[in-house]
Design brief:
The chain has 382 residues and is α/β, with parallel strands linked by helices. The chain has a single domain, classed as Alpha-Beta Barrel (TIM Barrel), CATH 3.20.20.190. It has 15 helices and 10 strands. An 8-stranded parallel barrel has the order 1-2-5-6-7-8-9-10, surrounded by 6 helices. A hairpin with a 5-residue loop joins strand 2 and strand 3. The radius of gyration is 21 Å and the shape is globular. The chain starts with 38 loop residues before the first helix and ends with a helix. This is PLC-like phosphodiesterase.
């Protein structure tokens, strides 16, 4: 059931008039499958295939718009209203979070507790679904909790067959039970299009990656995290692994840029989370990321259109081969230069906080489990 267009919180946003951006802009609801093609080709519409696709010349494909917890900027997070709003806004995929109820129902909740979103001082895993189903969000309009089953049934319609799903598998529950119940839930909804072409399980740890490989063997897998070092160790051991990292990690001077370049070279698509400011969106576009996870997919698609139009203008009036300028004939694109520059200045506090957080997490992790380059292959091989 779609949102009534008359009451929808999402205004329609047509492509920029007078511009042919088909080689730059990702088509909204781009088909994910061409018959008979490989898994890489089948998932290309979600940006799950190898990074860096470009249709012609200096133009490049924009990152896919992934709606973080649905359209979180317009509706209560992880609610059906948020998911419907995201689809209506043109998001290529929705991202959501998995937890397990006391009676084994896979529910969509970012937090392990109910306090922030539902005002109840209890843990999700301590409550049965019959109780959880009665709760309503504290954010208006009051919305009920959603099961993974509900989201899959909603997306399992012809008009939504091209919308993908990123499942952020939280680590608060028993790993084996949560993954087993997730696999059973997916199997309980026979997809009119195979779910393996639409669902991307996102795993924080090697243990969850290994369980996903076992229980969802035909599905692509992503690592979600904050450390390029840990992500690189996983990517070195798992062919085609998708990478979803905190935007700060990917934008870190020198280290982040080298990491993205390496992942592109080795065929590991890269996503950034959570990108909500326009200058960060422009940075993600300039960095040639495969996907952007954002609370506001409409804004991101709008920024993509504006950047595409600016690139069209720059390509028409920029320096071309033989025109001098010492750039080897490459089109000079001011918008890309600005995208690279605006991600860092003015954010010293945020950078300091991120680096402190990463340092603390890394020290604790390395002290307990050892270097990722040694620990990751050990767990995968056990």
């Amino acid at each position: 059931m779609a949102i009534d267009s008359a009451s929808s919180p999402i205004p329609k946003m047509p492509p920029a008039a007078g511009s042919d951006l088909s080689t730059v802009m990702p088509d909204e609801q781009t088909p994910l499958l061409d018959g008979g093609k490989s898994m890489e080709a089948a998932t290309a519409g979600l940006g799950l295939s190898q990074a860096g696709a470009s249709s012609s010349g200096s133009k490049h494909r924009m990152p896919r718009a992934v709606a973080h917890r649905g359209y979180k900027a317009a509706a209560p997070e992880n609610s059906m209203l948020a998911f419907r709003a995201a689809v209506e806004a043109g998001a290529h995929a929705v991202e959501t979070d998995l937890h397990l109820s006391k009676d084994g129902v896979v529910v969509l909740s970012h937090d392990a507790t109910l306090k922030r979103c539902f005002g109840v001082d209890a843990k999700v895993r301590d409550c049965e679904w019959v109780f959880l189903s009665t709760l309503r969000t504290t954010q208006e309009p009051a919305e009920p909790m959603v099961r993974l089953l509900d989201l899959l049934e909603y997306l399992n319609e012809d008009e939504r067959v091209d919308v993908g799903v990123l499942l952020d598998i939280k680590t608060d529950d028993d790993a084996a039970e949560l993954m087993q119940k997730t696999a059973e839930t997916i199997a309980s909804v026979p997809g009119i299009r195979p779910w393996s072409e639409r669902i991307l399980p996102c795993c924080w740890t090697t243990e969850y990656v290994k369980l996903t490989q076992s229980l969802l063997p035909n599905f692509p897998i992503a690592h979600v995290g904050v450390s390029t070092e840990y992500a690189r160790a996983l990517a070195d051991n798992i062919s085609g692994l998708r990478i979803s990292l905190l935007a700060h990690a990917l934008a870190t001077p020198v280290v982040g840029k080298r990491f993205v370049r390496r992942m592109r070279r080795t065929g590991h698509p890269v996503y950034a989370w959570t990108v909500n400011d326009e200058d960060w969106m422009r940075w993600a576009i300039g960095a040639r990321l495969d996907g952007v996870i954002t609370d506001d997919p409409k804004l991101f698609l709008d920024v993509c259109r504006r950047v595409a139009a600016e690139e069209e203008d720059a390509a028409g009036g920029g320096k071309k081969e033989g025109s001098g300028g010492g750039n080897g004939g490459e089109v000079v694109t001011p918008v890309r230069r600005r995208a690279r520059m605006t991600a860092v200045p003015g954010r010293l506090f945020n950078w300091a906080r991120y680096l402190f957080f990463l340092t603390v997490v890394s020290v604790i992790y390395f002290a307990r489990w050892g270097l990722p380059s040694r620990q990751v292959p050990k767990v995968l091989g056990s």
